[in-house]
Amino acid sequence: MKLFNNKTLALLFASLVFFSNTVFAIDLFGSDEDKIIWKVGKNVYLKYVDQGKSKSGKNDHPVELNEEEVRKALAALVVQQVEYSDTKVESTPVFSPLQVNLLGKHLLRGLIKAKPDQDIAFALQKSTDRLFGLKTTQLYVAGRAFYKNGKLNIILGDYDRARQEGYENAYDPTHMGIVAYNFDHGKRTKSSKKFKLPLVKAEGVELKERGRRDWFVMDTGVASRAYDLQVRNREKDELAGKRNELREILGEDAVSGTSAKERAKNSKERREMRAEMARMRKEMSEMSDGKASSAQSLEARLATLDQLKKKGLVSDKEYQKKRREIINDI
Q: Is the whole model's pTM more than 0.85, yes or no?
């Protein structure tokens, strides 16, 4: 009976390993530890992998890049995503802020020591809210990165792959972390079927070739500067929007910061200016009708006309016309 139970257990275990190899792997002993750049558990990592088939030859490795530029270039990777509930198209970043920081830090560490025939494979995790924030789902993105011809290349394989917590709990009930996912890290020779979102056009970022939405080629310096400009413009737009909201709620004076005393002063100056303009225009009208020729000297009429011209209340054409009329009265 004991022998039968042992055989049964052995068969069950073999079946489990065989089945899980299509999607998962039961890692009891660890592997490729010498190729690991950075790792958390079994399913979040950056590691060296073979380059694979490539028509363009070996990578330009090792290479040292600017971390801040790489982070901004990765943040500039934005795709269009359709919300099927209302057919609304929204822009969404390829990597979350945490993923950008992790890649920006550890990818550069890996590139400094990478060999020409090696790529850097990565698998990263992020959290996303579901059911209006009532549930949180863990998602994975996996791919590979390498540097070639002065540009950073990113090829995506798995994208927003949901974590199978039920499977992990069933085959790793003690949470020892022995269930490892078999991620697709993308290929040079074949486009990924798991990432088909269109890229939002950005300076310094382009697709490797037409029809491949999963392969990004980035000039990190150009993309970084373009990202900075985009952030500044977005901040300006947000500030302008907030000011418009305040104007609608509180009025223009509250936004501009004008005090009641200043408003009263400005109002008084506007009234005085309107009165002065009315007086001068009246004098001009009288001069046109010839009524002031006997009451005013020619010099006074010319002086008044000069004042109107100086204050911008008459145009050059009007000034010249009235001046000729006054002189003709001599």
A: no
